[in-house]
Amino acid sequence: MRPGRPLVRFLCAGAAVTALATPLLAVPAQAATTPGQIPDVLPAPGPGVTRIQIGAFNDLHGRLEAPDETDDGAPVGGAAQLAGVFDAMRAKNPDTLVVSVGDNVGASTFTSFIQQDAPTVKALNAMGVAVSAAGNHEFDQGYADLTDRLGVNGRPGADGAAPLAAFPYLAANVLRADGSHALPAFATTEVGGVRVGFVGVVTQQTASLVAPDGIQGLQFTDPVAAANSVAAQLSDGNPANDEADVVVLLAHEGSSGTDCATVGTEGAFGRIVQGADPQFDAILSGHTHLRYDCEFPVAGRAVPRPVLSAESYSTAVDDLVLDVDTATGDVVAAGHQVLDVVGFAPNAAVQQIVDDAVAFADVRGREPVGSVTADITRAFSGDDDDRGTQSPLGNLIADAQLQQTEGAGAQIAFENPGGIRDDLLFAASGGEGDGVVTYAEAAAVQPFANSVVTLTLTGAQVRRVLEEQWQPAGSSRPFLALGVSQGFFFTYDDAAPAGQHVKSVTLDGAEIDPAAQYRVTVNSFLASGGDNFTTLAEGTDRTELGRTDLEAFTAYLGLPQNQGLAPDTEPRYAVAAAPAPTVPAPAPTTTAPAAVVPTTPPAAVAPTARPSTRPTSTAVAAAPSGGGPLAYTGAQTAPWLAAGAALVLAGGLLVTAAARRRRV
């Protein structure tokens, strides 16, 4: 880098350029598995060539401590070892930059959450992160929190307070109502004499993934058009608006699969891969927490474009190596791999930050808040949490919020599945003893610190809220199963047309009156229409509890009558009964029919309880990055199955009891 250069401007308007005129072919690359080493991915550069290296990670989510370990007990990931990977990269090639692809904070573990993720950002500063794309979770606490507390430019926020981040957050596709950029669109720096530009974009679905109240006035636009307009600026030959030899796209959007053919063709991320301007030399991605290491030919480019993602939670890093012609600034070779964060020496400064955070959290986290007699969990599909199925834990949280807001007249409570990030397990996590729920364990379940809101809806609006569990076309999850409070029940037909899925809705056994008013409690994320539950934003006569959802949950767990809670495995919804078949009237006869002796219908089979299991840990990845802060910037139960059938009417009405099952 060359300190002292003026701040770089960023482009506010742009034109999209199609990148791939030739057929798209994916070439997977092999990930290195040797612990503690940075394998070579290219032969030694020849004369007139400068080699630079970029290490990247994504979706850290405040994982300061190692989230996993190998079979022989070696830690996998963790902030200090992540920094150790970058130390090893710099030792091998001093011309190394370290970058993040977003979601550094939010949905964090207790160690980071209890201090509002300040230790995580401090660790990123210490490991020399140069720049980060903004992820959707950077907006969890609202735009003002991102700009004024986290800091987007490495400069003081609006109130003059020093920002937490010493690096810029980038998002070219986040605009204010007047069309101006709400965050810097790009940042540039020099390493080894090569000018490198980073352009950031965030998933266009961000508006439905965070509380709308916190992002009022912001637009999340097409990431391809936004990124391409900036790429054009950085390569237009006009030094007045900044130029870059190498341009890298940091896309907080990702593939839904790990096969390179899928990565390059399907969904929102496939459109980014296919539509990114040829000026982009590489695409580093995240958001979907998957690991892929691919490259794709691009029209007009001699070198295929690498496209990488390093899972999540600091367990892997992207290692991108680019050879640049010193005379022309063109990339003449690209090597890449995704490395496991295993076997690297931890960085001492970052380790101290982690140790201090652990000590602080340990004191707060050991406080007991309640007790359980068995695991109370989310729903699961295989090893993945299943947000398309009601869960005992989601319903328990709804019960808690209902009880805590009875003073506001609450009659019904709903909980969104994405707000539940861990399980309440019977086994002790430390020295507290089996069955004891600690503050840290409760906080891991509900880490977002949403407020609790009670509002008024009509019965018709309550029904619409249930219909909104079937998400709009193109959503990453087609169905989001709300947790519902005790006494509330509904039936549905999944095959019915949109807006007609819900067949009956009852409260304490009585059908909901469409014209009557009901007091409904939800968290502030849902209350403002989050997760596409837009009807909740229409609620009137709003009352806030004055405590967060975590505080409401721990208060409920602490009630004397709630000690020794057991999971309620009875679903609070069911498939609607099929209509009775039409039986044609018999032809008249002159002989009276014999009397029919009624038979006893078979007993209904009770729904089976969801197994109380938890998914096993799997290694997740973070990406490599290098260098220091940039000096110059542009302006997130195994499904229940109600088994069995009962023939209820003589002549045969078949009622199938089955709970909805959908994969995350």
From TrEMBL:
Signal peptide location: 1-31
GO BP annotations listed: nucleotide catabolic process
InterPro entries assigned: 5'-Nucleotdase_C, 5'-Nucleotdase_C_sf, 5_nucleotidase/apyrase, Calcineurin-like_PHP, Metallo-depent_PP-like
Keywords: Hydrolase, Membrane, Nucleotide-binding, Signal, Transmembrane, Transmembrane helix
Keyword set includes Signal: yes
Sequence intervals crossing the membrane: 640-659
EC class: hydrolase
Listed Pfam families: 5_nucleotid_C (PF02872), Metallophos (PF00149)
GO molecular function, one term: UDP-sugar diphosphatase activity
GO terms for cellular component: outer membrane-bounded periplasmic space
Domain 5'-Nucleotidase C-terminal intervals: 382-538
Protein origin, superkingdom: Bacteria
SUPFAM superfamilies on file: 5'-nucleotidase (syn. UDP-sugar hydrolase), C-terminal domain, Metallo-dependent phosphatases
Calcineurin-like phosphoesterase domain: residues covered: 53-289
The protein's Enzyme Commission number: 3.1.3.5
Entry's family note: Belongs to the 5'-nucleotidase family.
Name of the molecule in the record: 5'-nucleotidase
Source organism of the structure: Kineococcus aurantiacus
